[in-house]
Amino acid sequence: MGKIYVVGLGPGAGSQMTLCAKDVIEHCPVITGYTVYVDLLKEEFPDKVYLTTPMKQEVQRCEMAFQEAEKGHDVAMVCSGDAGIYGMAGLLYEVGKKYPDIELEIIPGITAACGGAAVLGAPLMHDFAVISLSDLLTPWEKIEKRLRAAAMADFVICLYNPSSKKRADYLSRACDCMLEYKRKDTVCGIVRNIGRREESYEILTLEALKEKQTDMFTTVFIGNEQTDIIRGKMVTPRGYRNV
Ligand code: SAH
């Protein structure tokens, strides 16, 4: 029996991958994952067997991984960022109920929230909430409920999947929920293509964020009451000076 490793690759390519993730990929003869991430690996590891399925065929991808492991091959299922944050780790455990003899191991990676925070400065120094605006698997009403609850509690909020072509106004709707509790001049940040060559960021107010168009390669940060701009960067105080 082979084993399945669920591997977070980090937000970009190469240097933001952990040594452990790299070792596992070097070790496994079979690599599977969403086409975009697998293509990134093909250049560096040309001698592997690559098995891919398009987006939205995640269950089939998991089945494929278990079938390969049953044949005796160790498999690396790769995800961007961390495999357990809007990644494939949970789904493999669910699908794996049918394959109790095949071992699973999760290899953590740098998630977009950490990668993006480092680009912006230090926005996540205090309590924060991560919310995905994708309503593919969660009803929009529940997303709004979580947005309002996190805003009401003055969390720094990090938004994944902020918008796509089909959901062009979701970020604007999320900002409306924020504006019910947070000031218009709350410090916010957006980071595109974290860890990749085209990486870019912008720091702006919540009011301005509401008018922004973003895409699926963007992570959005909304500050708390105390988040400030220092040296042109987004910084949430840790609070040591207040104690
Ligand atoms: N498992 C991933 C998240 C997958 S959800 C992780 O831990 O990072 C996909 C969302 O993550 C994207 O819509 C975007 O909001 C964010 N994201 C992932 N990689 C990114 C990158 N390189 N730059 C900016 N945002 C990224």
Number of helices: 8
CATH homologous superfamily of the largest domain, by name?
Tetrapyrrole methylase, C-terminal domain
Looking at CATH, which topology of the largest domain would you report?
Methyltransferase, Cobalt-precorrin-4 Transmethylase, Domain 2
Arithmetic mean pLDDT: 94
The low-confidence parts are: none
Number of domains: 2
* Cα radius of gyration in angstroms: 19 Å
Which outline best applies? elongated
Approximately how much helix is present in the residues? 25-40%
What is the ordering of alpha helices and beta strands?
Answer: EHEHEHEHEHEEHEHEEHEEE
Secondary-structure-based class equals: alpha/beta
Main sheet properties:
5 strands, parallel
Give the termini distance in whole angstroms. Answer: 55 Å
What ligands are attached or bound here?
A: S-adenosyl-L-homocysteine
Number of DSSP strand runs: 13
Secondary-structure arrangement, i.e. CATH architecture of the largest domain: 2-Layer Sandwich
Strand content: 15-25%
- CATH class label of the largest domain: Alpha Beta
Pathway: Cofactor biosynthesis; adenosylcobalamin biosynthesis
Enzyme class: transferase
Keywords: Cobalamin biosynthesis, Methyltransferase, S-adenosyl-L-methionine, Transferase
Domain Tetrapyrrole methylase: 3-209
